[in-house]
Specification:
Radius of gyration: 16 Å
Strand content: under 5%
Number of helices: 4
Number of strands: 0
Helix content: over 70%
Largest sheet: none
Order of helices and strands: HHHH
Shape: flat
Distance between the termini: 23 Å
């Protein structure tokens, strides 16, 4: 399988764990001391790192560091928006669209040599 696709798949899974580690405690552990939230978040983040590190190593075999980072940011927004809307019950705003369009510009510029 293509290294970029493997890397992207692992980064999607990694970002799901990362998003829950960073933000789910705001909803689920709101009444707990921050130290409890931090420790539980670190536990969840461990799974993120177990996916993210191999994803970056695999991706770096085919992509530049900049390309890898932009791909990660696009995936992060793609995971964050549904999490924010469906899990955290935040309203869907046009700001997500504008952020996504800015990231598409970043994708174009960082990958344009591959497009030619």
């Amino acid at each position: 399988m293509n290294a970029v696709l493997i890397s992207a798949g692992l980064l999607v899974c990694s970002n799901v764990f990362m998003t829950f580690a960073w933000y789910a405690h705001l909803k689920e552990l709101n009444g707990q001391p921050w130290m409890v939230a931090a420790l539980l978040s670190w536990g969840v983040a461990l799974f993120e790192y177990l996916l993210q590190v191999p994803a970056n190593r695999i991706g770096y075999s085919s992509l530049s560091l900049g390309q890898l980072k932009i791909m990660q940011e696009v995936i992060a927004l793609g995971v964050f928006v549904p999490f924010s809307v469906y899990y955290m019950k935040e309203p869907l705003k046009l700001d997500y669209l504008w952020a996504g369009l800015c990231l598409l510009g970043a994708v174009f510029f960082i990958f344009r040599a591959k497009f030619n």
